[in-house]
Write a structure and sequence with these properties.
mainly beta, 4-stranded antiparallel sheet
Length: 103
C-alpha cells in the first residue's frame, strides 16, 4: 500500500460526499469487490478489497481550517487498507476517485 497526501486550497468539484455514522461495519459498497468499512476497534475508516484487484482510491478530507487534504491509497492485493487513523464524519470524492487497472 502506498499512501500519498497533500493539502489543496483550490475550489474542487466533488461528485459525492459520503457521510459516516459511528457504527462499526460496512458503510458504503463501491462495487462488488470494494467497500468502505468502519473498523470495530478504532472506528477508523478502511477500504476493503477482494477479487485480486489492482488500482487507486483517491479521496479528500476537509480539515478544521477548511482546507481539503487529498489522500490516495494504491492497492495491489486483497486486504483491508486503513484510510484514516481517526474517526471521520465525511469524505469527498471526485468522479474518478476509484481507478481499477484493467489486466
Amino acid at each position: 500500500m502506498v499512501e500519498k497526501s497533500e493539502s489543496i486550497n483550490a475550489k474542487l468539484q466533488f461528485s459525492h460526499i459520503l457521510t459516516f455514522n459511528d457504527e462499526a461495519g460496512i458503510q458504503y459498497i463501491l462495487n462488488s469487490n470494494i467497500w468502505l468499512k468502519i473498523l470495530n476497534d478504532s472506528k477508523d475508516l478502511a477500504l476493503v478489497i477482494t477479487g485480486n484487484l489492482v488500482g487507486d482510491f483517491t479521496f479528500f478530507i476537509e480539515k478544521s481550517n477548511g482546507v481539503f487534504e487529498n489522500k490516495c491509497i494504491t492497492f495491489s492485493k486483497n486486504g483491508i487498507y486503513r484510510l484514516t487513523h481517526a474517526p471521520v464524519k465525511q469524505i469527498y470524492l471526485t468522479t474518478n476517485a476509484l481507478k481499477i487497472d484493467k489486466n
